[in-house]
MFS transporter, anion:cation symporter (ACS) family (Acidobacterium capsulatum), 429 residues
Amino acid sequence: MAFDSAVSHSRRWRIAVLLGIGVLIDFFDRVNISVSHDSLVHAFHISDVTFGILASAYAWTYAIMQIPVGVMLDRIGVKLIGRVSTLLWSLSSFLAAVAPGIGSFFAARLLLGVGEAPVFPSNAKATGYWFPENERSFATSFFDAAAKLASAIGVPILGLLLIHFGWRWMFGVSGFISLAYCAVFWVVYRNPSQDRKLSEQERRILREGNAQPEGVAKTTHGAPLLYLMRNREVIGASIGFAAYNWTFYLLLTWLPDYLSKTLHINLLHSVLYTSVPWAIATVTDLVIGGWLVDHLVRRGFSAWKVRQTVLCVGMACGAGIFGAGFAHTPMQALFWISLSIGGLGAMAPVGWSIPSLIAPKESVGRIGGIMNFLTQLAAIGAPIVTGFFAREHNFKGAFLVAALLLAIGIAAYLFLLGKMHVIPEPEEA
């Protein structure tokens, strides 16, 4: 009986782990292209600028789908959207593995963007359903830290697959792993109201902790998109996270190539050097952005001040990427990149918890979609802009652009997002 009670009391954390595993696998499918840079350039006879466009391709459809996905999530729900999403992104990896030319490979990456578009908005919505406010940062850190862990462990694993079996097998293995997760998500995920094993004690924790309510979609369709898009807090959250995403995707797509071109590190060693900063980011994500934020809020510290401090200090550390442009040794580069990714890792769970903290009823998906649309414009721009700098083997300019955007992001969090108040219902505004 005691065992059953303990398991029942941890139902919400089972969901957090499930979402984290999903993002881990999701990012294997994103980072595999950066690992295979040289192989793809050779196989398809493309330039670095073309590779930058190819690396950003999935973000094109990902961005276009964000707002429609947000609306669908608020109306259809996490379960069905999540099932379709995982199936599509699995298919995209298989198609990339057998692509005969650059056009078909590009199309496979566009499909990847469609499949992965719902992942973070649906995770934010699920977290709002499953967790009280004072646990939401730590719960969010489960899936956000997985994005960093994917590069920490995925880059070496994918690199070894590439070296021993080639890039096609590497993409094929990513597809098989994704398909396995699709089956697990299909079986496991339910909303709290649909989970028959959820105890009354845990349901009470959710009610008393201001978890996002279910069922109100029957009487309301959520706040109108234009109303939310004009809201100061939504604008601030979107600009701030877009600045974060620019640097994140610059490093996600170009870090191995920066290490090999600028510091002349071979492929095997570059993937190992790449994994260290991402491992550090995984720790800062879980410990600072997740556990510490919730711990301080439970201890009585001002919730918005704690979150704002982590957001701004984390992004200020992220601007340390500029220092990597002046590194002359691998260890110097490792320090600056670790500082940058570690800082961004610390602030990311707070950034992703914002939609569930400020949204009116049944509007978390919409706000997540709006926010992620702008962040994906950054994900499109960063690989392409960096490709122009990489053409000259000079990353200083790319790192300077990233640092300046992070400064703009800090200003947006401070002066637009502010105290993270819940947005009033349209009829109350």
About this structure: The longest helix spans residues 267-298. The CA atoms of residues 50 and 411 lie 33 Å apart. Confidence is low (pLDDT under 50) at residues 1-8.
